[in-house]
């Protein structure tokens, strides 16, 4: 029924084939497929791909044909809406509380904000001085 001829495989060859299959299964994807190349983070196209893919750097040109230098991607993009930090929240809160003392509109908002900044700078400076005094006392005690 089967038209294919049957071959007898010698036991040594069968053992060699079995060992090769075991070693092959233990290898990682990259070791089994070396022709694909390793993965890299490409600075040109800003993607992650294999080294076998070649990216060409393209520059923008002016109307006169002069190439413009592209900026690199050495840093993150940052957030669109950044999170508020503690000091900024304090400033907004104090400005809102002081605005009732400045009733004349947009110009007075700037005055209220600058007054809030001055108050908070004094507060932050006093807090840092308090911490420095505490550290100095603690180090004096620890010295003996």
Task: Report on the architecture of this protein.
49% of the residues lie in helices and 4% in strands. It has 144 residues and is mainly α. The protein is elongated and about 100 Å long. Strands 1-2 form a two-stranded antiparallel sheet.
Offer a concise description of the structure.
The protein has 144 residues and is mainly alpha-helical.
Residue-averaged pLDDT = 83
Give the percentage of residues in beta strands: under 5%
Strand order of the largest sheet: 1-2
Are there runs of 5+ residues with pLDDT below 50, and where?
none
Number of strands: 2
Biggest sheet, open or closed, and with what strands and sense?
2 strands, antiparallel
The tally of helices reads 4
Portion of residues within helices: 40-55%
Shape: elongated
Structural class: mainly alpha
- Spell out the helices and strands N to C: HHEEHH
Radius of gyration: 35 Å
| Ends apart, CA distance between termini | 99 Å
Question: What labels describe this entry?
Answer:
single chain; 144 residues; mainly alpha; 2 strands; 4% strand
List the helices and strands and how they pair.
Layout: H1 11-26, H2 29-32, E1 39-41, E2 48-50, H3 86-98, H4 106-143
Antiparallel strand pairs: 1-2
């Amino acid at each position: 029924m089967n038209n294919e001829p049957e071959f007898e495989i010698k036991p040594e060859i069968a053992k060699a084939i079995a060992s090769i299959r075991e070693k092959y299964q233990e290898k990682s994807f990259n070791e089994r497929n070396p022709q694909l190349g390793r993965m890299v983070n490409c600075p040109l196209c800003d993607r992650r791909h294999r080294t076998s893919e070649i990216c060409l750097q393209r520059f923008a040109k002016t109307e006169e044909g002069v190439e413009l230098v592209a900026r690199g991607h050495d840093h993150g993009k940052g957030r669109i809406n950044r999170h508020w930090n503690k000091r900024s929240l304090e400033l907004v809160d104090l400005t809102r509380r002081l605005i009732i003392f400045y009733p004349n509109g947009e110009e007075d908002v700037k005055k209220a904000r600058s007054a809030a900044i001055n108050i908070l700078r004094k507060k932050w400076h006093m807090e840092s001085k308090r911490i420095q005094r505490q550290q100095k006392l603690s180090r004096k005690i620890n010295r003996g």
